[in-house]
């Protein structure tokens, strides 16, 4: 219900209370966002010596910048999930339910109704975002990092702009989505659109630079990025489109199924609110092939995910249990997690390396990197010279102030287990994460939950599909 007076307050009190998101729960959500971002930062810190430090150093640094940078992205993910779950309550699906028709006929202004509903949602989103932003700052103080307040305004505005963009886009798309499911798809698409826009406009290069973000003017420098004109133009256009579209939709009345003006012996067709498919009311149609496909795909997806997680856990256990002479071998390849920086830059620390398993007759040449055993310990070094049954090996990367060549050693040919063929930095990082406490819980707990509750999950998707 919409009221002429105090609509803004009424929208906040009623619309969000009805979908069980009260002010207290908004505050709880904001605190959760701050705590979750803070915990996620610690998870990333366990992966310092991995490919992540090279690819996304902005979230790996011991600073306020990293924790807040993580938070503004988590806030976007949270709000997109929030929009998708409560889509039917937050957006303009109420217009299709005739909530605006009589009010407009009575002289209520659709302009005021449109903008106040939009402002009500923006207010709710920014309130949660601001409280969470303050929470992550307070939590980071506990780490005793150097507090640099210069980049806090820039980071806050950058995160706020993302939320405003996806909120306004989602509101506009909801006026064109004929079904709830399609509307949720469009809402997810807004996050992708915002992410792509930031990449194309060079905005990510600015907000991921800790030095550049200390100057607020850099964020709005049009010589570096045109993101702000593009984002503001999109939001302005969406507001105009939404205004005229909502006014047009509210001029039509959707006839209720219980209406008495329907002639007798008239067939009624119901359009599913989920998918837009129509079916004859009262008919007992058989289960269609589409429903069968969804059920089958859901079951297959669960089985594949559970099996993949279990296999990965087994793979990690075997690698961790490897000992000299009993390494894991997969189709003649020995996977080996490299724990040193002695072979950089060819092999980085915590890379998952691959070695071709060889016997004593396999030709090992000068320049090859080999996996060999010495005193019941496995080493990885480069061959710098070779003779009949002996190899001279050395490391590539000597520590500063150390004498080059001090680590040279002679290896007998029989102690060579494998020859280096390649590496995977991302799998190495994944294995490093899986060996942490959080990783252990995630890779073991999630498959276990899915395994024991797969029947309930299957019934949920089946129920959703049938309701559609």
Automatic annotation (TrEMBL):
The keyword Transmembrane applies. The chain crosses the membrane at residues 30-48, 68-87, 99-116, 122-143, 155-177, 183-201, 222-244, 300-321, 430-453. The lineage of its organism: Bacteria, Bacillati, Bacillota, Clostridia, Eubacteriales. InterPro entries: LexA/Signal_pep-like_sf. Keywords: Membrane, Transmembrane, Transmembrane helix. This is Peptidase S24-like protein. The keyword Hydrolase does not apply.
